[in-house]
Design brief:
The chain is built from 17 helices and 24 strands. The protein is an alpha/beta fold.
Amino acid sequence: MKDRRTGGEVKIRLGVVNDNLMLLNGKIYTMDPQHPKAEAVAIRDHKIIAVGKNTDVENLGRANFRVINLEGKTVIPGLIDGHTHFLSLAYRLNKANLEGISSFEKLLSVIADFCRDLTPKEWVVGDGWDKNIWGDESIFTRETLDKICPQNPVALQSKDHHVLWVNSLVLQFAGVDENTDDPSGGKIVKDPLTGKPTGILKENAIGLVWDKIPSLSAQVCRELFRKALKMANSFGLTGIHNFEDQEAFRLFQGLWLDENLTLRVSHWIADGDLDSVICLGIGSSFGNEYLRFGGVKLYCDGTLGSQTALMFEPYEGSSDNFGIEVTSLEELTEITKKASYAGISVSIHAIGDKGVHNALSAIESSVPNTEGKNRLRHRIEHIQLLHPSDIERFKKLNVISSVQPVHAPADRPIAEKYWGKRCHSAYAYKTLSTHGALLVFGSDAPIESLDPLKGIYAAVMRKKPGEKESWNPGERLSVAKAVHAFTQGASFASYEENIKGSIQAGKLGDLVILSQDIFETDPEIIPDTKVEYTILGGRIVYQR
């Protein structure tokens, strides 16, 4: 094979060149409504060439293929995570991990231990802390961090990445003090008595600090990225939709050039890069089978966990907290129009009911969606609370519902605390589907686990493994519907439904072999199901 940069010969580092693969004696769920089940499948030159009964596929000649006897194991299309922050996931492997710690003393101990291994002035970066465990934001102060890490700048992202907890050194370094005004769409939390920053920065105020953190070396970034790719493949993922800046895209591109990219990536840029892409004349779906441009990511509001998601009515226990309008409706509409006229899809982060309403209104006011292949595939991310009057608008406006089912059971305690009775319409996946909205499922990794089987379980059971009661059980989905959202739904959202998302002749040979049949047995087995193989274009990129 020719090197794409030099024209010289290169050796593919993963799998075997043109690895022809034949899978026999399986329970294959194709996600093709015309032929939903099969026993065997054959892949040649990265694409599926035959699907059907064992005898039909074996007629191609076993000698020309590497044959795997599935022995009754289940096969599904390669899974696609519709919402990741992959570089952040990779970087987490190099950070202080504070996720799931329920003791404040333990939290401080982990931070102190991480700091102890660093030299003075070296940054302490971490994430995963969750103020909702304690229910008291006031304990997260710069002074607390000053005591345990007096010589190091400390910047710790919350679990939802919408709040940053920093110490005094970081504030000094960024020039943030009692005289610093809140940036648009953000909040610097200040002590009501002294007026000085407490060390908590919300939403766009995070940018006052985040860009000051020194970057990791290119070598370290590549190594962390490779580890994250292996993790993704071990979960049965063959593709992701990634929402990050040009640094992540550059790393994906480098791995693709070196034949080391083991995921197919639809990459979404930040709004600050929109003008550059428009100048280049690049529209949504531009790219190849490995790396493709998705569109532009916009932010309408904040999050439930930080009580910054935009609401029609105040949060429970508050008379004036309606959340934060990160981007005004006027500006959101203007950017959506600009992107639409340039042939670029928008993906709008919207969690609160008013946030979702504004996101739909911005899309509705943009250039009309044309029919057929030229219709833009705008989408809204998260949609955790939905006003009843907006349910029908998704189908009417052809807006994709990109949601993360793992959020529902994870967020239940804080949703009930801060949204109260409004929770009867929270995380309404079946309602959206029933009213004609296309569902795309993802994880929001590293906010939640990258494992799509956990997402499928959450969508089907509406609870965590081991819990007795489902939350809003009327919103439970079938396994088939959940798998569809991780395969065909995600493929459609990236303009790739004709090349992947189902097991059909002519499509890419992206498959997952599972240890158990998740379709026809008790859904409680889903968390115990193992990925046996992950296959990308006929290449085995993971084997248990």
